[in-house]
Amino acid sequence: MNFKPILIVPGEKKSIFFEIFFKSITSKKVICPLVLICNKKILSKEVKRYKFKQKIEIVSYNDIFGKKLLNKRIYLIDISNRKSKNYVQECFQLAFKLIKNGLSNKLLNGPINKSKTLKKKYLGITEYVAKNFKQRKFAMLIYNKKLSVCPVTTHLPLKYVSNKITKKLLKEKILIVNNFFEKFIGFKPRIGVVGLNPHCESVLNYNEDTKIILPVINSLKKKFLLKGPIPSDTIFLKNNRKNFDVIIGMYHDQVLTPIKTLFEYDAINITIGLPFLRVTPDHGPNEIMVGKNTSSPKSLIKAISFLDKK
């Protein structure tokens, strides 16, 4: 049985991606064909640096649709202009084109420097990918089998968060999370929703927890396994978090800080709500560690394994 290939955009030219990619492939048997979309010279340099032995076959964009991609093989589509200021975006755009033309429904990208690659035009790669597929309803899920988290707002400055939280947006995220778990994980998730304010209280007359979050919970709790709002300083305690499969928070660090404290690299970042699966390891390029060969491949192994089974 031939599986759809996993399209891989390695990301930044200066990154630990190839180190952890080679470690991942060496330690984990991958069934799906893997299609790297990057510059051949950059790849060759990294292959030599880390003494990677597995064969990588070069294939052109024009030929790949007529070629039978074999399981357990690695292919490369060369992005020739490695010195382009838009090199990473050019890799992504080719991957998007391959997905839109039906070659694959699985995309994995390496760590991205958002300020350098996105030039402050997007909050993050999550939004960049969604925009390119004209997808308005999507969510960021940091996934671990024991516990996952989803921020309602992503890389948004804190002073803008309260104005962004609406009943419509919160309902949207709850629905996307529930649908993803039912379709791809195989069960209806127990969802906990975190309040915005400390202890879900506010000294102000207007309290988002009672005016926005609580009414949404009450309107949906008959349809979903849903509880909230729950204070963020207690929901992650051991005896509380065991009651949930997913915790939805109002902003990025409210839920990503505790999930990374609990699981470190044992989690992956999934953009849910797209017409395909997009996954990335849950860490950055880590430029200061490039070439030291000491970086952990754990998150990337999890990311590849997740796509390999789909």
What does this structure look like?
By secondary structure, the protein is of the alpha/beta class. It has 2 domains: 1-135 and 274-310, Isopropylmalate Dehydrogenase (3-Layer(aba) Sandwich); 138-272, 3-Layer(aba) Sandwich (Isopropylmalate Dehydrogenase). The protein contains 12 helices and 12 strands. The chain has helices at 17-27, 40-50, 61-64, 87-100, 114-117, 125-132, 158-164, 167-185, 208-220, 238-241, 252-263, 298-308; strands at 6-9, 34-38, 56-58, 74-78, 106-109, 139-143, 148-151, 190-194, 225-230, 246-249, 268-272, 277-281. The strands form 2 sheets. Strands 3-4-2-1-5-12-11-6 form an 8-stranded mixed beta sheet, sandwiched between helices. The protein is elongated, with a radius of gyration of 20 Å. The mean pLDDT is 94.
Uncertain segments: none
- Distance between the first and last residues' Cα: 13 Å
Order of helices and strands: EHEHEHEHEHHEEHHEHEHEHEEH
Query: What is the global morphology?
Result: elongated
If you compute it from the alpha carbons, what radius of gyration comes out, rounded to the nearest whole angstrom? 20 Å
Major sheet description: 8 strands, mixed
Structural class per helix/strand content? alpha/beta
Which strands sit side by side, in order, in the main sheet? 3-4-2-1-5-12-11-6
The CATH topology of the largest domain = Isopropylmalate Dehydrogenase
CATH architecture descriptor name of the largest domain: 3-Layer(aba) Sandwich
Number of domains: 2
Strand content: 15-25%
**How many DSSP H or I helices?**
12
Look at the structure and give the CATH class of the largest domain.
Answer: Alpha Beta
